[in-house]
Amino acid sequence: MTRLLPGETVPDGARIEPDAWDHEHCKRCGETIQPMTLCFVSTGDWEAILCEKCHEFVSATFVQRLLRKVGLPLILPRTTR
What we know:
81 residues, alpha+beta, two-stranded antiparallel sheet, 23% helix
């Protein structure tokens, strides 16, 4: 069983089963992601779906690595108005 992505058509010999796909799994932690729940899907050649918690973790980790690479402090100072 697979899901159709936008622009794909049903292959010859296959059939669509309504209600067969009822959830996703987070690629990082495996948590079940229910339909109509906030999640994050990658773009590009492969698909990765992340739950909200894992997306926050991965995003924060990416920003920390980027800041280290360019030599900026990990915690930016607060600015006053």
